[in-house]
Design brief:
This protein has 760 residues and is α+β, with helices and mostly antiparallel strands. The protein has 19 helices and 26 strands.
Length: 760
């Protein structure tokens, strides 16, 4: 391994002291003079025409400053995904229970809520579709009859509720299935999931006398919120400033515009700052969760275990509006395996439920549950060891990935070997105990990334980026800058940022910050270092390549005592021709860099109750280079916990008639507690990436993918029953143990093929 001075060492978070002492400021902590409170009136109908909204009694309530409805906003459609399919507030129709229909600004929160209760809305009910597979059927009522008119809609396919279709094909799939020795097909279904972040979303909006809008927001994407606010308010982008506050968790839910437009317009109407803070119940109905997914997978294999063909059809429930779409069905339908012939389809389908959002690589955990459960099924039917079957088929360097890229160097085999060694596989654990494995694949994220570094007269440097810290990423970026410049961590200052001050960057999500943003920081630090070396070279009269930058100084390599400190060089730069030292860098895209991990779970199944307890959990992930190992392990632990919750207990329940969320609280939406969890064992595999800062790969999202499939496979190993629907609740497991047939997942793949003109 390369010897680092700063990287591959544990560093406390640069914001740690502020967090533990309570000095960190969140959006809900912002209080401004004369501030009003905002509350929302929301739809009680799943799908209805708004006949009238009477706000008279609310406006007349003492302490109420303003009330607005959808007609007060510009008549502009916007979209959180590929389609512009919604208004920021319902105007003529509502499409799900909980959709905002009015907003109130009042002297305090209680008065605002009282005013909301006085708003009278008359509805004319329209047909409702709740189940995503019902929404696909011919004759199903259309959630959006005007779908073909939406900006961004560009294909024709049978089914009035299919709002987007992604596809990928390679080889002669039908011929390969004919040649296969064995063809196996499975259908899986996963549940709706809430991100479960601790800090409910909040924002404060204030309009200055000159009409300029400032928004303090709980957001992962300040530039995205600024752009969407400008759109829905019909304002100039330059007239909006977004200040991202400390973030108490997001996991993708805070990437896009949520409700920031409501206090913003109320501030314009009242001339006052206006604050809106979600209740926990509103988090479940106003912010996009993940909704159910149905996956059909058919594979053709040879007797030696080689997979030669695959079909995968994924149906994503996107709710009333397309937010974070169904791309993972296509991108991850093969898993970590080299399949020469495939047909992959991923459908986004409207229903009358809360709109879908992002959650730690949207949909990939659903797809991984299906692919890795299916992989185990194939191995068992061939009579092969599941680990060995995976080894035969897994991707290797030089193979062609599903996106057509050649596979670069990666640590997939090393992850599988590390998991096998740590769990001592293959093995049998005895009655009611089982072990299961799963492979996960992802990629290091890309996107616009910028950074600037300025050198201060005291030898410290200030790092400025536009990215929001959601997972300790500021600490990792500081470490990258410190390593590049030969400085100790404490001499890197990470500046607070907002859209007026910081250079544009993409949102903090998609596993892109350390890989993409970190590369921008490394390049900015290299630019800074080059300028330091140039000043020193001029002073010493030697070429710049004869110098090194380490330990806070620049010195002549063959005469180390001949040196200048960075503080001295910073002072010299003030009178130099080049001026003060500032290094900058920006980029838009990064090369395809895969991320692989292997997960293993040991379980104990109570045959009398169906209760599943995870007794051991191991994950091995290729991190390339661990920028900050402590933070890496924290990400791995957190993802595993979320995956275990998804596997066993978490389940957003929707009313079968209305689509309303039935369990919008932490009391009824059951996330795992510490007592429910085993010790989580992490193995950091280090196969440096060809790109990325110092060989680092993305870390954040893959830890959440593997647990559902690994646990389902372990349950099968323990008691011989296969559960194809998440969560693996005690009721489902017990019913399977008692021989009750699992409810059918009625996915009509032939109808989907016929609609596209494929062979049925």
């Amino acid at each position: 391994m390369v010897e680092f001075k700063v990287l591959e060492q544990n560093h406390p978070r640069v914001d740690g002291l502020d967090k533990v002492t309570g000095r960190a400021t969140y959006a809900a902590d912002v209080y401004l003079p004369g501030m009003a409170w905002c509350k929302l009136a929301t739809s009680t109908r799943s799908h209805a025409r708004i006949v009238s909204i009477d706000t008279t009694r609310a406006r007349d309530l003492p302490g109420v400053y303003a009330v607005l409805s959808g007609s007060d906003f510009p008549d502009i459609h916007f979209g959180s995904g590929g389609l512009k399919d919604r208004y920021v507030m319902a105007r003529d129709e509502v499409y799900y229970v909980g959709e905002p229909v009015a907003a109130v600004a009042a002297v305090d929160e209680m008065t605002a809520q009282e005013a909301v209760d006085l708003i009278e809305v008359q509805y004319e009910d329209l047909p409702v579709v709740v189940d995503v597979l019902d929404a696909l059927r011919e004759g199903s009522s259309a959630v959006h009859p005007d779908l073909p008119d939406f900006e961004g809609f560009g294909f024709a396919l049978g089914g009035e509720n299919v709002c987007t279709l992604l596809d990928a094909d390679r080889g002669d799939v039908d011929a390969a299935f004919q040649q296969a020795d064995l063809v196996i097909e499975d259908t899986f279904r996963s549940q709706g999931i809430n991100q479960g972040f601790l800090e409910p979303m909040a924002c404060v909006a204030s309009v200055e006398a000159n009409g300029r809008l400032t928004v303090w927001a709980s957001t992962q994407g300040p530039y995205q919120v600024r752009a969407q606010l400008a759109s829905v308010l019909d304002m100039a982008l330059s007239n909006i400033r977004v200040i991202p506050m400390e973030l108490g968790g997001g996991f993708g839910a805070k990437l896009r515009l949520a409700f920031e437009a409501f206090p913003a317009l109320l501030s314009m109407k009242t001339g006052r700052p206006v604050k809106l803070v979600n209740t926990r119940e509103e988090v479940f109905t106003l912010n996009g969760p993940r909704l159910p997914v149905a996956n059909y997978i058919r594979s053709g294999v040879m007797n030696d275990g080689t997979i030669i063909a695959r079909e995968a059809f994924s149906v994503f429930d996107v709710g009333a509006y397309l937010g974070a779409g169904p791309n993972s069905g296509v991108g991850h339908g093969l898993g970590a395996y080299n399949v020469p012939n495939f047909r992959l389809r991923s459908y986004g389908v409207y229903t009358n439920k809360v709109y879908v959002g992002s959650y730690r690589a949207s949909g990939v955990a659903d797809m991984t549950f299906a692919v890795e459960s299916h992989t185990d099924n194939i191995a068992h039917k061939l009579g092969m060891d599941p680990v060995e079957f995976r080894r035969i088929n897994c991707l290797r360097e030089g193979d062609t990935a599903v996106n057509g890229s050649a596979m670069p160097r990666n640590g997939l085999q090393e992850c599988l070997d590390a998991l096998k060694d740590r769990l001592d596989l293959p093995k049998k654990l005895g009655q009611r105990r089982g072990v299961g494995v799963a492979l996960c694949e992802w990629r290091s994220g890309s996107g616009p990334s910028t950074a600037s570094i300025s050198v201060n007269e005291d030898g410290t440097v200030s790092l400025l980026t536009g990215s929001v810290d959601i997972s300790g990423s500021d600490t990792s970026l500081a470490a990258i800058a410190a390593e590049t410049l030969g400085l100790p961590m404490e001499r890197v200052i990470v500046a607070k940022r907002d859209t007026d001050l910081a250079p544009f960057t993409g949102p903090s999500g998609g596993s892109r910050i350390v890989y993409s943003q970190g590369t921008a920081v490394q390049r900015a630090a290299e630019d800074t270092r080059d300028k330091l070396l140039a000043i020193a070279a001029d002073r010493f009269g030697v070429p710049a390549d004869a110098l090194s930058c380490e330990d806070g100084a620049v010195f002549v390599q063959d005469n180390p005592p001949q040196k200048l400190t960075i503080s001295q060089l910073a002072s010299m730069s003030l009178s130099s021709r080049g001026g003060p030292i500032i290094g900058t860098a920006s980029l838009s895209t990064m090369p395809f860099t895969p991320v692989y991990s292997a997960h293993g779970a040991e379980v104990l199944v109570d045959e009398d109750t169906g209760q599943v307890r995870v007794t051991r959990y191991v994950q091995a992930q290729d991190v390339g280079t661990a920028i900050n190992p402590m933070a890496v392990e924290g990400q791995l632990d957190g993802g595993a916990v979320q995956g275990i919750g998804r596997a066993l207990t978490e389940d957003m329940l929707f009313d079968s008639e209305t689509g309303a969320v039935r369990n919008p609280s932490f009391a009824t939406y059951l996330m795992p507690l510490a007592v429910d969890l085993p010790d989580i064992e992490n193995v950091l595999v280090r196969v440096p990436a060809e790109d990325g800062p110092f060989g680092a790969r993305a870390v954040a999202e893959p830890p959440g993918f593997g647990a559902p499939a690994a646990i389902a496979n372990a349950v099968y190993d323990a008691v011989g029953v296969r559960i194809n629907e998440m969560p693996l609740s005690a009721e489902r497991v017990l019913a399977a143990l008692q021989g009750q047939p699992a409810p059918e997942i009625p996915m009509d793949v032939n109808a989907l093929k016929e609609a596209e003109g494929l062979t049925a």
